[in-house]
Amino acid sequence: MARKMHEPGRVHQVRQVYKVHRVKEMHGVRTMRFAVVGFIALLGTPSALAQNLATDPPVVVVSGEGVVTAAPDQAWVSVGAETRSKNPKEAQSLNAAAMNAVQQRIAGLGIPKDAVRTIAYDLQMEFDYVNGKQTPKGFVARNTIEVRVDDLAKLGDVLDASVGSGATSVRGLRFDLKRRDALEREALQRAVADATARADAAAAGARRTVDRVIRIEENRVQIRLPQPQMMAMRGEPAMEKTPIAVGEIEIRGAVRLTATIK
After folding, report:
1. What's the pTM value of the predicted model, to 2 decimals?
2. Backbone angles phi and psi of 260, in degrees to 5
3. Strand 74-85's sheet: what is its strand order?
4. Helix (H, G, I), strand (E, B) or coil at 29
């Protein structure tokens, strides 16, 4: 009987617990509903989104390229002398004598002092390898200068005079332009003109016209200069004057243009 008397109380507790859980669940559903409504409000109505898209003007994006060619009017060449001796001082002394003679001959051709600079010098021991063993052979001294030639008519004379006065190597011949900056700007102007014409053509194809240019971006183009490699060794039979074919240098400009159309 005592057990039966307590059953109504347990039923009442169960109902109370169920009511509490029910309220929490209802509260969770309500919170979720508010969150969904807030998210929809952030997105905006379809008509508002369409209105935003309508305010953005249509654009056309094109690329343009400009090319300028010119004959080079400047050259650089590396001239070196290599001497050997059993004694390091003697190797160095022989090398100094050879390079002094080379620079004097170059100066005699009218090349100014500021157009000549030393780019490498080293003195080191050489070895022979016999039966896997390293045996000292002597010392070698190397000296390399770079010569800038502003008058290309003298370039062949510079090469021949260098070899004839003691140089053992002539290499790294390359050409350039004194007015490079101005020619690069000209190529860039041509690239913009090309891009503008392309934008007009694209707009006309869609039965529209260009309204205004809103962005121009330059795309840097790496220019490779002609760099013929050559080597002349002292002790070869006498040769005629070295002929030089300079050719032309091509400078390119490239842009990306964005314009609105109407």
Report:
1. 0.66
2. -85, 150
3. 116-130, 133-149, 74-85, 169-176
4. helix
Closest CA to 124 of 165, 88, 151, 176: 88
Give the pair of three-digit tokens for residue 149.
């030639």
Which helix (H) or strand (E) segment holds residue 175: the answer is: strand 169-176
**Angle, in degrees to the nearest 10, between helices 155-164 and 88-108:** 150
Four-CA torsion 155, 161, 162, 164, nearest 10 degrees: 150
Share of the chain above pLDDT 90, in %: 65
CA nearest to 126, candidates 79, 74, 83: 83
Please report which confidence band the pLDDT of residue 221 belongs to, taking 50, 70 and 90 as the band edges. confident
Residue 21: domain span: 2-47
Question: Residue 249 to residues 39, 61, 124, 187, 220: CA-CA distances in angstroms?
Answer: 62, 30, 40, 13, 17
Question: Which CATH number do you get for residue 85?
Answer: 3.30.70.2970
Kindly report the number of other CB atoms within 10 A of residue 184's CB atom.
18
pLDDT band at 172 (very low <50, low <70, confident <90, very high): very high
Instruction: Give 207 or 15, the one with higher predicted confidence.
Output: 207
Helix (H, G, I), strand (E, B) or coil at 229: coil
Q: Which of 109, 143, 176 is the last residue of a domain?
A: 176
